[in-house]
Amino acid sequence: MKKITILMLLFVSVLSYSQLKVSIKFKDNTEINDSIKQVGEKLISLKTGKTYTLNTINDIKIFEGNTVKHYFILDVKLYKNSKQVQKGIGRIIYSNGEITLYRILFGLKLKNKFNFPKTYNNRYEVFIKRKNKKHTYNIGCIDGTGCIKIKKRLKDFFNDCPNLVQMIKKNKINKREIIKIVDYYNDSCTK
After folding, report:
1. Which residues, at least 6 apart from 52, have a Cβ–Cβ distance to it below 8 Å?
2. Which residue of 39, 51, 86, 95 is most buried, as measured by CB atoms within 10 A?
3. Over 60: is that where the pLDDT of 70 sits?
C-alpha cells in the first residue's frame, strides 16, 4: 500500500496527454478557462505553455461535449493517523450531512514515473471527508488491497459514534456499505 500514490487522473476515459477544455479555479479565487494537457502531476496550458500545480488549484471543471465534470483538489491521507499527506483530484459520489464521499483515481509510483490507466476502470478508491475538515481519508479497497483494514479505518473515522462502530464490528452493517454507514451516522450520531 506504501507504493500507491494518489494521482490526479482527471480524464476518466482520455489518455493523459490528450487536450481538455477546462475551467480552473485557483485558491486565490481567480478563475481561468484554458485548454490543457496533463503530464504526470502537472497541468500544462496548450495556449501559453504555463504549468499549473495542484497546490495552487482549488477545483477544476472539465467540459466534455454537453457535460461538465467537477473535480476537487483534496489533501489526502491513506488512513487517519498517517503523517503523509498527498494531493488528489476527486469527484463527489455521495454527500449527506457532514460527510462527503469522493472517488479518487490512483496509479502506482515507480521510479518517479507515473503509470496512468488508459481508460476508466475500477482502479479508484472511495475516500471520506467531514465538511470543514482539511483531510480526506481512504475508506475503500481495490481487488483485495486494503480490505482487511477497512473496519479499523471506519472505527477511526467514526470514533465519535460508538453505536455505529459496534454495528460495523458485529457485521450488522457491512463494512463495504459506505453509503448506508454514512446515512446511519447522519441519522443517529449527529443530533
Report:
1. 24, 36, 42, 43, 44, 45
2. 86
3. yes
